[in-house]
Specification:
Layout (H helix, E strand, L loop, with lengths): L1 E11 L3 E10 L7 E9 L2 E10 L7 H8 L24 E3 L4 H22 L10 H17 L3 H11 L1 H12 L3
Antiparallel strand pairs: 1-2, 2-3, 3-4, 4-5
Helix pairs in contact: 1-2, 4-5
Length: about 180
């Protein structure tokens, strides 16, 4: 059910690390995009985000009902989504964990999101390549990728270490190719 699975761990110097993971569904399958990022600075998670992002106009009832059943902890420092963050679901969790308990709670939440996704993978139906549903989901994935490419923080970090031309090509052809 997936067209691309991207898992990356980047280390910049001794104190800055990023875990980036995105699972892009094959548009023939009614599955959300799974994404998680952890930004670690000086051995602390400074930013953490997880979501099952929709690739259609409305989230399917089965996904919504499962997401509403999740045990989402109250984190003390939620973060504000960027202006292009409308691509995320209403269930996106974007935080700065304040201690090791919150870090562990966030990782448990990531596991819950993955469990929801895996429960959908085993029951999802397949649409034809040229069906309106597949075409619509493909357009939503392109929208997701286009908006992710607007993340200036990613571009700045990659440009700092590898140069602007390399960063742009990496973002376009590896991270968010569609």
């Amino acid at each position: 059910g997936f067209r691309k699975i991207h898992l990356e761990v980047a280390k910049f110097g001794k104190s800055f690390q990023i875990l980036h993971c995105v699972l892009f569904p094959d548009p023939c399958y009614e599955l959300p995009i799974f994404g998680v990022d952890l930004v670690i600075s000086s051995n602390n998670i400074s930013a953490a985000i997880v979501d099952l992002s929709p690739v259609w106009e409305h989230m399917p009832h089965l996904l919504t009902s499962q997401m509403e059943l999740l045990n989402v902890p109250k984190f003390r420092e939620p973060r504000v989504l960027p202006d292009w963050g409308h691509i995320f679901s209403p269930y996106v969790c974007f935080i700065r964990p304040v201690n090791s308990f919150e870090e562990k709670s966030f990782l448990t939440l990531v596991d819950q999101y993955l469990s929801v996704l895996l429960s959908l993978v085993v029951i999802v139906r397949t649409d034809e390549n040229n069906s309106l549903h597949t075409i619509s989901r493909s357009k939503y994935q392109k929208c997701y990728c286009s908006n992710q490419k607007r993340n200036d923080k990613t571009r700045v970090i990659l440009s700092k270490f590898f140069g602007p031309a390399w960063a742009d090509e990496y973002i376009d052809k590896i991270l968010f190719s569609c």
